[in-house]
Amino acid sequence: xxxxxxxxxxxxxxxxxxxxxxxxxxxxxxxxxxxxxxxxxxxxxxxxxxxxxxxxxxxxxxxxxxxxxxxxxxxxxxxxxxxxxxxxxxxxxxxxxxxxxxxxxxxxxxxxxxxxxxxxxxxxxxxxxxxxxxxxxxxxxxxxxxxxxxxxxxxxxxxxxxxxxxxxxxxxxxxxxxxxxxxxxxxxxxxxxxxxxxxxxxxxxxxxxxxxxxxxxxxxxxxxxxxxxxxxxxxxxxxxxxxxxxxxxxxxxxxxxxxxxxxxxxxxxxxxxxxxxxxxxxxxxxxxxxxxxxxxxxxxxxxxxxxxxxxxxxxxxxxxxxxxxxxxxxxxxxxxxxxxxxxxxxxxxxxxxxxxxxxxxxxxxxxxxxxxxxxxxxxxxxxxxxxxxxxxxxxxxxxxxxxxxxxxxxxxxxxxxxxxxxxxxxxxxxxxxxxxx
Length: 437
Ligand SMILES: Cc1cc2nc3c(=O)[nH]c(=O)nc-3n(C[C@H](O)[C@H](O)[C@H](O)COP(=O)(O)OP(=O)(O)OC[C@H]3O[C@@H](n4cnc5c(N)ncnc54)[C@H](O)[C@@H]3O)c2cc1C
Fold this sequence. Notes:
By secondary structure, the chain is α+β, with helices and mostly antiparallel strands. The chain has two domains: 5-75 and 191-253 and 355-406, FAD/NAD(P)-binding domain, CATH 3.50.50.60; 131-182 and 255-352 and 428-436, D-Amino Acid Oxidase, Chain A, domain 2 (2-Layer Sandwich). Helices cover 30% and strands 24% of the residues. It contains eleven helices and 18 strands. The strands form four sheets. Strands 1, 2, 8, 9, 10, 11, 17 and 18 form an eight-stranded mixed β-sheet that branches. A five-stranded antiparallel β-sheet has the order 13-14-15-12-16. A three-stranded antiparallel β-sheet has the order 4-6-5. The longest helix has 24 residues, at 96-119. It is globular. The structure holds flavin-adenine dinucleotide.
């Protein structure tokens, strides 16, 4: 398949639209010979390029991004940098080592992000007060019981809450039970990745609006771009589900399209109708449940739609239709604020595998890849990207071992079965969601 720049579309529906206009990109032009090239400037690619620059201060690291920084998943997610993963489907004491492995990776990534946000003074509304995991009915309430057993067995700091406790804090009476997990950071995702991209080490050259259209593997590898050719000794793929467009993980990683909306800034009177907390993040205990935020600048955000759409963003028309689903979730939780309009809607594609595993390591001679975090990639992608730089440079560390410990992916059948399977896989997340959506 021959790609062109149109295979990497973007739109103006993201968290980046809440920020000042991004400066004009400097697309890659000409022919360049480098030791290292990284494809994709999301959290994985940014972390990898940063670490490569530290490890190889005498070499140039070329970071190639198809769109503008902030317009991929890393800039359009819900902004939860987790330390503690929720493993749905019941607590299994036999899996405690696996839970620990994943949480070690999460915590490593969260620590790196915390350090970078502080050292680079990135203004991304970083708040580190943990998250709320509420349950409105049936399956989510049962899941809350499993989650509490897991938190207790793993000795993870948390506070169980009943409906009244949740209402007092968050201002919604929808939920009957829940838990506050104390670790974890909330942030403005587009501001985070822009801040990371704009403060890269001097030996990293970032080119936005520079899609890699083809990889000719060799020594060196040739990367074909609309404006020229890059020749690189070592290549890192941090392109998430779009690695498939370049011929990698085609049958292992697919893109699921999620969408959400943000209200306008609440007035003092509207804000007073909410609970005691000034900002918060709420992650449902049901896989199809809504993710909500009250941002520090007083907007409410709702993300509760997911679909298989061929790994693409939603058109304006389709996104407008999805807003009805976001709206219903919003009004169900905040009936007193039903008059508050949405200012923004966004869609975004997450990379998911059939068995919800992650990808890390060598793909071919001098080609490395990390990605596919199934909706939980801010801290994990940062840790994976950093560890991949070490791994590709011949290093070893406990973090690399943890990243290499991801289970192999379950095989996805070829098209058109892939599309049918992907459709049902994504749809199945809503089974039994009830009031939690
Ligand atoms: C709606 C939504 C909400 C989410 N919420 C959360 C959350 O709250 N917390 C959390 O931890 N995770 C969340 N996630 C998941 C998280 O956003 C991702 O796991 C994470 O951003 C993946 O980072 P990445 O760098 O691997 O990939 P991406 O951010 O997707 O970056 C890959 C980059 O590669 C570029 N690219 C692709 N192909 C090429 C090419 N050929 N040439 C050049 N560039 C290329 C893309 O343009 C893109 O910018 C959410 C995801 C979605 C969709």
